[in-house]
Amino acid sequence: MRALPPAQVKQSEAPSNGGHSSRPTQRWHQYQQHRLQQAVERVHDYRVASKDTTKEVVLKDATLARQYKTTQAIERLVEDLIQESMARGEFNNLPGAGKPLKFAPENPYVDSTTRKLNEVLITNGYVPEWVVLEREIGDDKRRLRAKLADRRSLLGPAPLAADEQRTWDEAVRSFHSAAAQINRKIDKFNMLVPLLNKQQLHFSLATESEKILNSAAPRNTAAPKTPQLQQSREDEGFLSFIFSAITNRW
After folding, report:
1. Which domain holds residue 32?
2. Quick one: which of 1, 30, 64, 141 is 20 to 30 A from 125 by CA?
3. For residue range 190-220, what is the model confidence (pLDDT) as tens digits?
4. What's the Cα-to-Cα distance from 80 to each of 9, 67, 74, 86, rounded to whole Å?
5. Are 118 and 184 found together in one domain?
6. Does some domain include residue 101?
7. 219 near 156, Cβ under 8 Å?
8. Residue, of 199 and 102, whose pLDDT is higher
C-alpha cells in the first residue's frame, strides 16, 4: 500500500462532488496512511540525528587521539635530545654535581653578597647581629614581666586600696628605664632585620603592668600550720622537757 502525501490526505478529507464528503471507510484508511507516514518520518529523523551524534563522538575521539599522539611524540623528541646531549657530554662538570641538594629556604629579597656573608658567619659559629638582638629582647621582656609579677604578689587583690595603688604606681615607674632600654633594642633590631615580617612593636609598660595587675594572685599569706608540723613541735617540746628534767636531777 502506497502512503499518500499530507497534501493528498487533506484533499481527500475535504468535501467533493458538489459538497458531498467521501465515505467513512475511505477517510479512515487515509487517516491511517497519514499516521504511518508521520511515523516513518520520525524514525528517519531519529536515525539521522543518531548518525550525527555518532559522527561527533568519533571526531572527538579522533581529536583526543591526535593530541595524545602529539604529546607522546614531543616526549620522545625531548628524551632523544636529552640522550644525545648526555652522549656528547654536555651534562658533565655541572655546578653542584655530586653534592647534596640545598633544602634550606633562601630569602629572595636578600642580595647574594649578604647571603654569602651570613653563610660564612654561620659556618664559623657566628650569628647575625639581629638574631642576637632578638634573643636579648625576648630575655629582657621576660625578666621585666617577672619583676612586675613579684611586685604584684606583695599587694592585695584588685581593686587595690589607695596606699597599695600608690605602691604599685611607684613600682611601675621604677621600670620605665628598663622598658626604654628594651624599646631602643627593638628600634635597632627593626633597622637590621632583613625580613619585614620579623619587625617588632615597642614594649608597652603600661599595657603589661595593667595585665599583670588584673591577672595576678593576691599577696602571699603565711601558710597555715599543718597538723604534722604542730605534732612535730609538740614532740620536740616533750623531749626537751624530759631532757631538762634528767639534767636537773643529775
Report:
1. 6-79
2. 141
3. 999 988 888 999 999 999 999 998 886 555 5
4. 74, 20, 10, 10
5. yes
6. no
7. yes
8. 199
